[in-house]
Fold this sequence. Notes:
With 130 residues, the protein is α+β, with helices and mostly antiparallel strands. It has helices spanning 4-26, 39-59, 118-129; strands spanning 63-67, 73-78, 81-87, 97-100, 112-113. Strands 1-2-3-4-5 form a 5-stranded antiparallel beta sheet, covered by helices on one side. A hairpin with a 5-residue loop joins strand 1 and strand 2 (73-78). Helix 1 runs antiparallel to helix 2. 24% of the residues are buried. The mean pLDDT is 88.
Amino acid sequence: MDTQPLSNTLRQLVVKIEQDKNKQRRGLFPYQPHTTTKLSQIMTRQVVEPIIKDVSNTTKRYISYQYGTSMGFYFLLVDGRKFAVLYIPNPGSGAIFIKPLNCHGKQCAPSSSLKDTSSIVDCLHNFEKQ
């Protein structure tokens, strides 16, 4: 699955949120506390969950995620073991990166831009070979 549509959607949502905040500060847009959602929830819903679902369907394995140490970092898990880190350093740019991990949970290769989910499948196959 190509991740470009997901990153474009994330970028557009972040820009809209920032524009709405600016309009509220200037008094052009009424304050609406009910519509405020956390950026981490948006990233999870719009990017991480569709990627996890596609990888699970492709590999026929149960792949899950765990929130990382800071916002935008997600550990990808197979059988409860971390095999990769999916991270979005700047949600406004929409760029998504992947860091493969070894069997000890340490980074074993340089991080790379995630263009499609086949990179995650490759990380999983390399992890299972160790």
